[in-house]
């Protein structure tokens, strides 16, 4: 059953120079208990899509078109007061940088307990006991001590575990993880990814996992949505992206070939995608990826492709998807 459905979502920033189309016609869904990996370079619209779900907007930002459904209910039309009941309770977020997400002047207990008292109606003593229990659940060795600590007294890995504990405190049905391991070293990153997979198996929480790293997606996701310039350019089960499908989007191919591999020889150069993501106020005509695509034709530069089904649960936004092996 679909837990979350996003249909033709357009989220724009209204600036003095014009509308910035941060999310420009995104459609995707997340099944109950599954992990959707959302991948793409910086500026592709991943985080803005996620923030649109909870309507965590800047003053000059809003949804211009489309709808977001959660458990069959259209939540994109809810008021701020109604959204406050959903945030942290039914849908929680783990942000990219825990040091800026946690309040430095409040203890860990104060911050986790606040969520529990607000959404679960627990008293102060019950919330403190539940806070310690959550710290144990995310495998913090000395939960009683950490519960009384301030964020600046903890390491980056510990702070991220605290963020996960806070996000899962109310047993949400959907967890949005916005690049939760970017600021961590490789060893701690592996521990956090393993922890999230274990907690997902225990709780059944669906996850929207946002990252720029397809290698992480391979470890975490059941399904994948590849984004570019505020649009979804490919969606598929994770195995289709990495091996099973006959066709692939040129952008997805570029992301895959830029990943370091075990058989990469010393001094061997990795493949790169030429150029950079275009400025949102100067998007190209036609296919948004055409200026960087080695396969682009005149049609690609002049006409914009639609997201089309090319196989079971596999959609690609491309006139000429790449055939595995490098041929169009």
UniProtKB/TrEMBL annotation:
It comes from the Bacteria. One of its GO terms (cellular component) is plasma membrane. It is found in: Cell membrane. It holds the Pfam family oligo_HPY. Keywords: ATP-binding, Cell membrane, Membrane, Nucleotide-binding, Transport. The keyword Ligase does not apply. This is Peptide/nickel transport system ATP-binding protein. It comes from Longicatena caecimuris.
